[in-house]
Amino acid sequence: MSLARFLVAWRTIPLRDREVIDALVDPAHTGPSAEFAQALQTWRGSYYWSDEPDGRHLVLTHPAAPRPRERWVLHALLFAAALFTTTLAGAVIGGGLDADLAYAPGSWGVSFLLGWTRGLSFSLPLLAILLCHELGHYLTALRYNLDVSPPYFLPGPPAPVGIGTLGAFIRLRTILTDRRQLLDVGAAGPFAGFVIAVPVLCVGLALSRPLTDPSVHGMQVWFAGQVWQLGDSIVTQIVRRVFGGASGVVLHPTAVAGWFGLFVTALNLLPMAQLDGGHVLYAALPRRHEWLGRGFWAVIMLLGWFFWTGWLVWGMLVLVLSRGRLGHPPVLDAYRPLPPSRRWIAWASLALFLATFTPRGIGP
After folding, report:
1. Where are the domains of the chain?
2. CA 216/CA 249 separation, integer angstroms
3. pTM for this one?
4. 190 in Cβ contact with 269 (< 8 Å)
């Protein structure tokens, strides 16, 4: 290795997708020195510094082999299916289609197509939020040379049963090197999605219809002869005060998409299991992750009992997906300390969760 003369010692960890080198740097070059900085420019891969009890380390990574070819056709087909079903849901929410027609494909015709297009004001912003969320994970993983899949979009039932999608996800096909990588990859998604969800909600509320009856409070969605109430978070309360200030409002489909974008952010930041919040919690407090996750799971179940039954469903789904365990799989080097420069990300993730969380979800 051409960098060897700047190092005191190093160990090489060969993995299926990459090679990781944990190097203890000579104290004379930990600045780094101008000579060492110039040599690092020739490194074909990624690297970052780690201050540890025995000195300053450099964690170097480079791909070990060409990446497998992605199944882009599958990803494109899933995205197209999700676009169709979320647009169908948006058309029902926006009044462009009757709910019964949405579930009767045999009756679809030209009028259906015209009504379906009215749902794009819901589907396009919602999918943009989900896409940016997953790209936050995806691009951060690529920056660390991790083997990661492009986003998979999951179509779902349209309104009034669902919103046309079950979300999206990426697959990390390798073990992460340390808690720094886990924190960065885990937190990047919610922040990226949040940055898009807030302006979508602002635009949607500007298009929404305020209610003149002062006795009616909160955010409402009217469709299929039903009125559904959407729970308020700190962020939605602030945005509603800025855009209109009415005690009650009937949401435009774009505002509904923004609300769901924030709601998905909160769902993913729940600090348990292998949700994004679970990744952040393990990165920050690996020894306390499991019992804190169990405690928060119990809180969610109590919220489901007293506030919104949807939390019961989500809690059981998380339990099933984690195979009954709310712990977290280890990273490659769990003993490498989390840099102080990364701890603000953990605190910011907690703040984002508290700002977007609502005890009451959606319901009549």
Report:
1. 4-63, 72-208+254-363
2. 8
3. 0.93
4. yes
